[in-house]
Design goal:
The complex is a heterotrimer of chains A (241), B (296) and C (341). Chain A is α/β, with parallel strands linked by helices. Chain A is built from eight helices and ten strands. Chain A has a six-stranded mixed β-sheet with strand order 6-7-8-3-9-10, with helices on both faces. Helices cover 72% and strands 2% of the residues of chain C. Classes of the chains: A alpha/beta (241), B mainly alpha (296), C mainly alpha (341). Chains B and C meet through helix 3, helix 4, helix 9 and helix 11 of B and helix 7, helix 13 and helix 15 of C.
């Protein structure tokens, strides 16, 4: 059974339909990369899974249980955690407090604050510093740590490399690869196609609210994905997974 | 010596203002709502304490212990039944609904208790007028000293609560960014309701002390709201100790004003408030919108 | 060309032309009121005119300017106080009443630089404190004798019958003039600025809308209107007790009328004033429960019918009698178009 299942999910922003009937399944230990141009609906899809947007139709399943009607905070307790675009730390609170807030509401599990510090050693020195005073890389590490301490069944990552210095991006991705190696189930949105193909086990390319190409990352070429990305692959048969 | 005495009395009065102001500041910090019924809730608490004391003869302090959970429940209810919906409707609607609530509370109190002014002073015996004397002309009322001490303990306790407890951290997280707080598992509706309950409980303490140190009547709420608001603005919103400082500054200004002219008490307080507000506007500061998390 | 024609902006619908015409005719007919109405009716109508004036002013502030003031009683009280002061200086009593309104407008202008830089609740309570302070300062005037107050004795120069007629005309004229002024302002360039500000203040400012200047006009007009209402109330009651005139209940009434009628609709506050007037006539005698009811009704409207009675009718039937907004003729049937991009 897949950890996360989407069935014909639709999300509207007012008149605009941002997600148009997406069905996906993410298996245990899998890393699914959502790629696509700006406005394709990736962030909306991720936020709908986390509960920040209420879907207009369709279902969201976590370990087979329907969570579509649950508010965001209850999905955290069920095992969905989102690292939002722009990190969105509580800037006036310390790194420790950011982690503690999340820890209080998550599931029991192996992830503790100590383990977050072991995973992101650079946070140790900044543990008592206000999150607003951190560098971009430190902020991203805190944001990922904040999601991890809730011990999610599935971790959602929205553009974790956005606005970071290249070296900081490398360090964040190093940690992600370690997480993936340890068997985490992840859905991530990534602008950089090459990076998405390298880190993910599966790739889904979105265009205008739909998944137009989906398949195993290893079986996909950059050219195929970028064709789908710009809508050139529309009408072709989706690649078999 | 007279002037020094006025300053000292002003400082002590500031303790009372801090008591009624901290809930107002707290609620604004968390929900961005200025509760225009804040003063009336304090007066309501004073009447409830008074009614219990009248019927049972128990100490007002004990009666307050009974009233506090009731007021907390009322704050919770107010948030869930009224403010939650108001907040969704925009920034102006909470002002309208809390103002309407203020009118309802005032007139229900009038309906129930009549126009007479009441006081809890007779029920606290010697505490109402006992004082410590410092030199020949300076006296510190024991009640005024107690109120100041309670204010310090309450503000300190609130600050500790926000910094050290899980609910405190959740409140700060929601105050900063309710959407993201939801995404890390915080139920913001419950947190808001808890914050409203705490705010209303603090003003219940303030209202009860008003009843002990002076008199109160059904329509006394708006004046307390104005004092509370002035203390908050003078001290800079969001900072607990700033609220105490603002209350003290207001108390000193009023007492010095009263020393200058009989009507000077209120005029001096309002003038200092407007001057501080004016200076802040002139300095381009964003006044009330200062970040809550900064000082907490 | 054809595309532009299809989206022509129209404000006058046949219905609204008829409505404005009817209203003008009604006002003209009311001007002859003293010829055919009895004393009681004249007194009641004078009160109603004052309420319409107050409701329209508060709506201009909050509904169009986004300024929720809990201190409009400042202008109500200052208008009346200025009339008394001017009369004591020997100014004729009716000119003094009119000048009282002008004094309130001048005060509003003087305060605007400070008050309009305050935001939301800060503005609401800041105005309230200003009203309290002005109340205290007026009490300092020997002529007023503190809370005891005084009377506009000069009014005794007129017989009660004449006074009733003059007050009625003055109230009708003040109401008519200020309601028409707000109408004209909102239909002019100010109206476009107001809508832009209401949709998004920052965006409006970046588009070159002079936010402060726009709000200042509304603030000064509202000051003038509330001041005139104060002098009119003084003319009908003769006695001036500061606590009555500077009481926050005036603002409570204004909020009630604007909310119930429909905040941000032009017609709403007029309807709200009539509702308030009728409620007062029927339930005013119940005293405290009437006031409890007013507060509770205001809360209920703010929560569940935020567009008020008129706004709800307007939404349901696409009705617009006194059009201050813009109506895209090509999009007829979609209801009034808002200045959205």
């Amino acid at each position: 059974m897949s950890v996360l299942g989407l069935e014909r999910l639709e999300v509207r922003h007012g008149q605009l339909q941002a997600v148009r009937g997406i069905s996906l399944a993410v298996a245990e230990g899998e890393t699914l990369a959502l790629v696509g141009a700006n406005g394709a609906g990736k962030t909306t899809l991720l936020r709908a899974i986390a509960g920040a947007h209420r879907p207009a139709a369709g279902r969201i399943l976590l370990d087979g249980a329907d969570v579509t009607a649950l508010p965001a905070y209850r999905r955290v307790a069920q095992g969905i955690a989102l690292v939002p675009e722009g990190r969105r730390l509580f800037a006036g609170m310390t790194v420790e407090e950011n982690l503690l807030v999340a820890r209080a509401n998550g599931r029991p599990g192996p992830w503790t604050i100590e383990r977050v510090l072991a995973t992101f050693p650079m946070l140790r020195a900044r543990f008592k510093a206000k999150a607003g005073s951190l560098s971009g890389g430190e902020q991203q590490a805190t944001a990922i740590g904040r999601a991890l301490v809730t011990n999610p069944r599935v971790l959602l990552l929205d553009e974790v490399s956005l606005g970071l210095a290249p070296i900081a991006v490398e360090r964040v991705y190093e940690c992600l690869r370690a997480l993936i190696g340890a068997g985490a189930t992840i859905v991530l949105v990534e602008q950089d196609l090459g990076r998405a193909l390298r880190v993910a086990t599966r790739v889904a390319c979105m265009l205008e609210g739909r998944v137009v190409l989906e398949g195993a990352a290893a079986a996909m070429t950059r050219e195929q994905v970028s064709a789908a990305y710009f809508g050139l692959a529309r009408g072709e048969e989706p690649q078999p997974a | 010596m007279i002037w020094l005495n006025q300053v000292i009395q002003g400082v002590l009065l500031g303790g009372y203002y801090a008591l009624i102001a901290c809930g107002l500041s707290f609620m604004f910090g968390v929900m961005r709502v200025i509760n225009l019924a804040h003063g009336d809730l304090g007066i309501l608490a004073a009447f409830l304490v008074w009614a219990i004391v009248e019927h049972s003869g128990m100490s007002p302090f004990l009666a307050l212990a009974i009233v506090l959970p009731l007021m907390g429940a009322l704050g919770w209810l107010m948030q869930r039944a009224m403010l939650e919906r108001s907040l969704r409707a925009g920034v102006l609607v909470p002002l309208l609904t809390t103002f309407g609530l203020a009118i309802v509370i005032q007139n229900l109190l009038f309906e129930q208790f009549g126009a007479d002014t009441r006081s809890l002073a007779p029920a606290i015996g010697d505490l109402a007028f006992d004082s410590w004397s410092l030199g020949s002309q300076i006296y510190i009322g024991k009640l005024a000293g107690l109120i100041f001490a309670v204010a310090v303990v309450l503000l300190g306790g609130l600050q500790l609560f926000l910094a050290r407890t899980g609910l405190g951290r959740a409140i700060r997280a929601v105050a900063e960014d309710p959407d993201t707080a939801e995404l890390v598992g915080v139920d913001s509706r419950t947190v808001y309701a808890a914050a409203a309950a705490i705010a209303v409980m603090t003003v219940a303490v303030g209202g009860t002390f008003l009843g002990m140190r002076a008199t109160f009547a059904p329509y006394a709420g708006p004046a307390q709201l104005i004092f509370a608001f002035e203390a908050v603005v003078i001290g800079g919103i969001g900072s607990m100790w700033g609220t105490l400082a603002g209350g003290v500054a207001l108390g000193i200004a009023q007492n010095l004003g009263a020393q200058i002219a009989p009507n000077g008490f209120l005029i001096a307080g309002h003038a200092v408030f407007l001057a501080v507000l004016g200076a802040r506007v002139a300095a381009g500061e964003r006044g009330l919108r200062a970040l809550f998390g900064r000082a907490a | 060309m054809s595309a532009r024609a299809a989206l022509a902006i129209r404000r006058w619908t046949p219905l609204s032309v008829a409505a404005v015409g009817t209203l003008a005719a009604l006002a003209a007919a009311l001007a002859f009121g003293p010829l055919f109405l009895d004393a009681n009716a004249l007194d009641r109508l004078t009160t109603l005119f004052i309420y319409v004036l107050l409701a329209t002013m508060w709506n201009a502030l909050a509904g169009y300017g986004g300024l929720v003031s809990v201190g409009q009683q400042a202008f109500f009280g200052i208008g009346a106080y200025a009339a008394i002061r001017l009369s004591s200086f020997g100014v004729g009593v009716y000119p003094a009443l009119l000048l009282g309104g002008a004094c309130a407008a001048a005060l509003a202008y003087a305060l605007s630089g400070f008050a309009l830089r305050l935001r939301g609740g800060e503005f609401a309570i800041g105005m309230w404190v200003l009203a309290e302070l002005l109340h205290l300062l007026v009490n300092l005037d020997r002529l007023i004798q503190g809370e005891t107050g005084t009377s506009l004795i000069a009014l005794n120069a007129f017989s009660p019958e004449h006074r009733r007629d003059y007050n009625y005309w003055l109230a009708l004229a003040s109401m008519g003039a200020l309601v028409a002024l707000v109408f004209a302002l909102l239909r002019g360039r100010l109206g476009a600025s107001v809508q832009a500000i209401r949709d998004n203040e920052e965006a409006a400012a970046s588009l070159g809308v002079r936010v402060l200047a726009t709000k200042r006009i509304l603030f000064v007009v509202a000051g003038a209107g509330c001041g005139l209402a104060g002098t009119l109330y003084l003319a009908t009651s003769i006695s001036f007790q500061p606590a009555t005139y500077f009481g926050v209940q005036w603002t409570a009434y204004m909020i009630f009328m604007a909310l119930v009628g429909g905040l941000g609709t032009f017609e709403g506050p007029i309807l709200g004033a009539i509702v308030f007037f009728l409620m007062e006539s029927f339930f005013g005698a119940t005293g405290i429960w009437y006031l409890v009811g007013l507060g509770a009704t205001a809360v209920a409207f703010a929560l569940y019918l935020p567009r008020g009675l008129w706004g709800t009718l307007e939404e349901r039937f696409g009705l617009k009698l006194l059009p201050v907004g813009y109506r895209v003729a090509g999009a007829e049937g979609d209801g009034p178009a808002r200045g959205r991009t």
